[in-house]
Specification:
CATH superfamily: Aldolase class I
Shape: globular
CATH class: Alpha Beta
Strand order of the largest sheet: 1-2-3-4-5-6-7-8
Bound molecules: iron/sulfur cluster, zinc ion
CATH topology: TIM Barrel
Helix content: 25-40%
Order of helices and strands: EEHHEHEHEHHEHEHHEHHEE
Number of strands: 10
Number of helices: 11
Length: 332
């Protein structure tokens, strides 16, 4: 990944990776534009989101064009281009319509152009301006309105996201929905159920369902809870459980590309099998073959004990910090 410093004329980051297009694994370029920032982060912000650090109030349309020019200098004709803004690509205050048009035409020749937006900016009008190779990425997060409001503070409802997804599909675009695995304030077991239910809800308007395990970002409400021992990022076993339960029950491709996997702040098991389990998740995300999700490790039993201990104690706190070898309670 290339990070180019903090000048408003520099993209926040740019890197190359693999993703899927037309059923094949292809090269993809990921461009994170530095913009003036997410409108919701300025008002309240989601409990797990620290993306505001990637924005700058000084960014002008000319800066955005300069960022695009720098990205084009690095573009090697990858079939899949993903343009993120750490906010909403379709928010005119972040990316003015004429800059958006420049981006659309710069990547008009690629197979897929993905951008992310909150639903209030993904209006039929805005979506109809997008080229037909576009994929709308939606931070649906949860199909439970109470989880959306009280645990995530998302500032929109699942129905709002659904409306945007249905409109995008109706206009011939494709949709990738992000499902949050383990918002704060709910137990690991409830988080699994919530993510499975959300994946099934998303299937009605999504070509792809991306499971996003919460990772602890700096200066967020989730970080405060994590430091106090009141939040543990999800286990990789939970991620595998969600993907396994969605497999065969949804038509959309199920995938996950976790940030910070294997670290204390990211989705993790016990350190014994994290790399192997994450490799299984990645392999499945490309193959769609349920056999690729099969992983063995003794710590699976510890995860099962964790789920039981949480239920017994009636808390979503980090039981891992006070339970040793199964069920013995340690004082902190
Ligand atoms: S998660 Fe998305 S909508 Fe929520 S504050 Fe972050 S950038 Fe904004
Ligand atoms: Zn293990």
């Amino acid at each position: 990944m290339e990070r180019r410093g903090r000048r408003p004329s520099d993209p926040e980051a740019l890197w190359k990776e693999k993703d899927m297009s037309r059923g094949e694994a292809v090269d993809a370029m990921v461009l994170i534009l530095r913009t003036s920032g997410c409108s919701w982060a300025k008002k309240r912000g989601c409990t797990m989101c620290g993306y505001n650090a990637a924005s700058s109030a000084d960014v002008t349309p000319d800066h955005l064009r300069a960022q695009l020019e720098k990205a084009m200098a690095r573009y090697d004709g990858e079939p899949f281009v993903k343009v993120y803004t750490s906010g909403s690509f379709l928010d005119d205050r972040e990316v003015p319509p004429d800059v958006r048009d420049d981006i659309y035409s710069a990547f008009s020749g690629c197979e897929r152009l993905l951008f992310e937006s909150r639903p209030e900016y993904a209006t039929r009008d805005a979506l109809s301006q997008a080229p037909k190779n576009a994929t709308l990425a939606l931070g649906l997060e949860s199909s439970d309105p109470i989880v959306m409001r009280d645990c995530i503070a998302k500032g929109f409802t699942p129905a709002d996201a659904r409306r945007a997804g249905v409109d995008a599909k109706d206009l011939g675009l494709s949709v990738r929905s992000y499902v949050l695995l383990k918002p704060p304030y709910i137990s690991e077991a409830n988080a699994i159920e919530d993510a499975v239910a959300t994946g099934i809800y998303a299937d009605g308007f999504s070509d792809e369902i991306s499971i996003n395990p919460v990772n602890v970002q700096k200066f967020t409400e989730v970080e405060r809870l994590w430091r106090a021992g009141e939040f543990r990022p999800p286990w990789i076993w939970s991620l595998i459980e969600v993907m396994s339960r969605l497999h065969g029950n949804v038509s959309a491709r199920v995938m996950s590309s976790p940030s910070g996997g294997g670290s204390a702040r990211g989705v993790h098991n016990g350190g014994c099998c994290d790399a192997k389990a994450l490799a299984a998740v990645e392999k499945y995300s490309f193959s769609g073959d349920a056999d690729d999700l099969k992983v063995d490790c003794g710590c699976r039993g510890k995860w099962e004990s964790y789920l039981r201990a949480e239920a017994m104690l009636g808390t979503p706190a980090d039981v891992d910090r006070c339970v040793v070898d199964g069920m013995a309670i340690r004082t902190r």
